[in-house]
Specification:
111 residues, mainly beta, four-stranded antiparallel sheet, 0% helix, 52% strand, globular
Length: 111
């Protein structure tokens, strides 16, 4: 059972990125998948989740800017991030099948 995050990078404020969380060993449509982030020197910050029934959740800090979705055929969950701000800079992690976490993907928002 594992998840692999990808799609991070350097983007200017106001820009967009799409993160991917590719799952294996479990089915994303049957499990809650969550995105969290950790900025340097700070604790883990829960960002968004998608549940097995398709319901979604967003933290107040990203609501209206981030969109979580999944592709059942690819067994992958995505996090579309728009109107990025410098405070969104962090390592982004995907959690699935309970507590399985990937290695993370770095997102840096800077001019």
């Amino acid at each position: 059972v594992q998840v692999v995050e990808s799609g991070g990078g350097l983007v200017q404020p106001g820009g967009s990125l799409t993160l991917s969380c590719a799952a294996s060993g479990f089915t994303v449509s049957s499990s809650a998948v969550t995105w969290a982030r950790q900025a340097p020197g700070k604790g883990l910050d829960w960002v968004s989740a998608i549940y097995n029934d398709g319901a979604t959740w967003y933290s107040d800090s990203v609501k209206g800017r981030f969109t979580i979705s999944r592709d059942n055929a690819k067994n992958t969950v995505y996090l579309q991030m728009d109107i990025l701000k410098p405070e969104d800079t962090a390592v982004y992690y995907c959690y699935g099948a309970g507590s399985v976490r990937g290695q993370g993907t770095q997102v840096t928002v800077s001019s």
